[in-house]
Amino acid sequence: MLRRRNRNALFKKIGFIALVLLLLWLIAKTIPYLFRADAPDEAASVVEEFYHYEQAGDFGSSWELFHPLMKERFSKSAYLQSRAHIFMQHFGVETFEFEMEKPEREFDVTVIDGVEPFAEAYKIGIIMKYRSTFGQLNLVQTCYVVKDGEDWTLLWYYPGKGGEQHSGESHK
Q: SUPFAM superfamilies from the entry (predicted)?
């Protein structure tokens, strides 16, 4: 009879220790997310800063906010020439207005087809409104903001050949 009581007491102690360890593990996993409350605001501020530079025609400063993958896609000089040529010369505009959607946090995001998915990103829709030689033009663009080291950086969405927007799941 004494052995059974000792065994039950031992199982209770092991169960209690396991429960405490589980709670400690959950707390440790949750603490970093408590300090990331500003992340959506930080992501939105990068996009807002990017498009303010674009409004002012300061394409060099906006290019600096790109993620390295975007910088690979466009050299700085090519980006400066293309943006100025297309928007200012072809559209005949000096600036534009823009609206931003609220940032949406997504996980395992494929932003550029064929590139490894990002573990976490903020998706922000942009509507740029141009008063051009050709009338009112509205361009809709999907941006993603991801951490590159300590800095938030911007990427444009480049879907696969189907062209459909994805809902955050990985396209492997």
A: NTF2-like
